[in-house]
Design goal:
Number of domains: 1
Distance between the termini: 40 Å
Structural class: mainly alpha
Shape: elongated
Number of strands: 0
Largest sheet: none
Strand content: under 5%
Amino acid sequence: MKNSISVFLSQAGPIRNLLYILAIITIVFKPDNSSSLDLEGLNFIPTLVLPVIAPLLVTGFFLDILMSRIYSSEQAHEIKNKFSKIIKTDFIFATLLLLLWVPYMVAM
């Protein structure tokens, strides 16, 4: 299992890995839906910075899905399999971000 994850991360590349890490950070540190905007100290990060980053990440994931689909359309079978895994991972992260952040954005 560890080997397949490390192979996938090496195939995905550094920019996609950064996108995955940022998505995990925004999922883990998402504030409660009832929390108010806090501008003092480091509390501004989950209440001000992360709500700005989350929609950008969703857009980035959907653009990566589109570009991966276009690039893999006329490639060899191995490359299609690689991009199929990338597309599935991107879709999972985009769905998680949407499911977790839309209620917070609506509550604002």
